[in-house]
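Class, study these two lines:
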Amino acid sequence: MIERVVIKVGRKHMLAPPPQYGTVRVRAQAVLHGPANITVRQLCGEGFYGWPVLTLEAQASQADKVESRIVYANPFNEGQHVAVLRSVYWDGEAARKAYREQGQRLKLSMPARFVQIPADQVREWVSQFDGVGIVINDAVGESDTVDIRRLRIERDYKSSVFEKIWQMQDADHALLNRRWGHVWQHMTDALESKPLIPDPDEDFWLGRPWFVYDMQGYQPGQLAIA
């Protein structure tokens, strides 16, 4: 019997065809890029709302292994003194193996962790990229043997968004790599030591992708960062 998947979009439900692996990978990408906002009913005794102010993403060379770290905050709310650091890991090689074994029965599972950090920490991390000269026209060719880095800073989704994706080995990005790596390491420390958030509410742009989080399986060092 062919399984079908019910996807919830707002208050409506629609019946989706069983996923092919390409569809699974697209859904994983949506999870890695994160929801439009996160809410937590009780965080430090009050409600929390934040959008993706700072995103760092790394992809390993010669392997479909990606880790996305996103800080959700509300810089315009001076009374909100906390933020949420969300990290999600994707192992494409393991997912392909699982898909070959399970086929249409595969339930997308991704290791993840959510922790609470001070809002001041977000401002400090963002400030690390002040004064970094950004190369717009990268003089590099396509390659499957390089590590990929991504940086996104969204102070306001309408009027102040910066995003850059680059090859880590490109010498023109040496300073950017150092600043990015510095923030990544501080995020690793936070993911290992800060209070966990077990059940945040995520609002994805086109409805929640079909997946589950593996909170127990997440380890901050799963993706080796040079």
